[in-house]
Specification:
The protein has a six-stranded mixed beta sheet with strand order 1-2-3-4-5-6, with helices on both faces. The radius of gyration is 15 Å and the shape is globular. The N terminus is likely disordered. By secondary structure, the chain is of the alpha+beta class. It is built from four helices and six strands, in the order E-E-H-H-E-E-E-H-E-H. Strand 3 and strand 4 form a beta hairpin.
């Protein structure tokens, strides 16, 4: 993702753009709203991981900036595929909005932008998993257009967040 790549304004004053290496410390602080006890990658590791996203066209860590501060983020991974006529599919992960900026449409704007990018890259579907059973969280994802219509399975190396 190019350093100049910006996805424009959404949800009134939210600027959505690709996270760059210089944004990683602020992103790490934002991730504390996702899981306060999660281990944080070292700055060098985080930068190397961000660089690896470039190997998958369309994959990006999106950030939402409000008043020059990153207040929301999600990760989009576009995955090459040999079925569906070779159409890729996408996965959205690490959806987070800082607690002080929730209920303003910022998360919705980020997810809508991520889905739009997936469609631009020829994906036939976009998947998102949540461990939350909170009705408000599930309603949020439904409100953005996601359907709860498949059964998900996983094997975890790290325990489920509580």
């Amino acid at each position: 993702m190019s350093a100049a790549l910006s996805y424009g304004k959404a949800a009134s004053s939210l600027e959505i753009k690709a996270v760059q290496a210089t944004d990683l410390p602020a992103l790490a602080a934002l991730y504390r709203h996702l899981n306060p006890s999660d281990a944080i990658a070292s700055p060098d590791e985080a930068e190397a991981i961000l660089e690896r996203f470039a190997a998958y066209p369309g994959s990006v860590v999106l950030g939402g900036w409000h008043d020059d501060q990153i207040v929301a983020s999600c990760t989009l991974v576009v995955i090459p595929n040999l079925t569906r006529g070779g159409m890729s599919y996408a996965l959205i992960e690490n959806v987070v909005t800082s607690a002080s900026h929730r209920k303003r449409g910022f998360g919705r704007a980020l997810l809508e932008r991520a889905v739009s990018i997936a469609w631009e890259h020829g994906c036939y579907k976009v998947m998102l998993l949540t461990g939350s059973t909170e009705p408000a969280t599930l309603a949020f994802y439904r409100g953005v257009g996601f359907e709860q219509n498949k059964t998900g399975f996983q094997i975890r190396r790290l325990p489920v967040r509580i």
